């Protein structure tokens, strides 16, 4: 391209043509896009003691007319344990956001306000008590939540407005249209003063094998026996948001901008 065998082709023109091409190839185009790196913001959390917990046990589908699900309830305060079947999402939303006085009246009045509601027990303090819940067999795709359970403190006159007084748990059970195992879909923590928190799980990798996700997370929070996913040396201390992966130590966290597990951008974080 630099020289031509044709004597009539001007050499200067060839060189000039070459210069033009090279400039066009390497010259940077102007742009208004500016990359700004924003460091993740730390979220400072307030400690909340959960008054109840609920674990899912065996799902028995051997019955022809009905199935059964075993739930294990733990309560650190006197409580009312209530189960509602086939509750719509809109009804749950309204109920969760009710003022406390109206909320508690729904479960204490003699009038049955909620359909398919059953009060299973009015219990004192107990650890991992089993409850056998009957599950109706659905012949059509489910348009409502299979189960919504309520743990409600019965000693609320002794607590302050900023203390948790109830936990609402939404459960899925397998059916012919969705055979995913029975699991917790979401939980809401309701305070006496009306505040509501959506309880969300953390995702972590455990050194020791476990099939129970709840037990695994409790050991993680209590013992800190999960190593950083990058260095595999220091314990995990940082939970990344919004993905909620608990996977990094303090040293490795300083060197990443994206979650090493799901590759999502780390917007904020909190320290365990």
UniProtKB/TrEMBL annotation:
<keyword id="KW-0863">Zinc-finger</keyword>
<feature type="domain" description="RING-type">
    <location>
        <begin position="228"/>
        <end position="263"/>
    </location>
</feature>
<dbReference type="InterPro" id="IPR001841">
    <property type="entry name" value="Znf_RING"/>
</dbReference>
<protein>
    <recommendedName>
        <fullName>RING-type domain-containing protein</fullName>
    </recommendedName>
</protein>
<dbReference type="InterPro" id="IPR042496">
    <property type="entry name" value="CGRF1"/>
</dbReference>
<keyword id="KW-0479">Metal-binding</keyword>
<dbReference type="InterPro" id="IPR013083">
    <property type="entry name" value="Znf_RING/FYVE/PHD"/>
</dbReference>
<dbReference type="Pfam" id="PF13920">
    <property type="entry name" value="zf-C3HC4_3"/>
</dbReference>
<keyword id="KW-0862">Zinc</keyword>
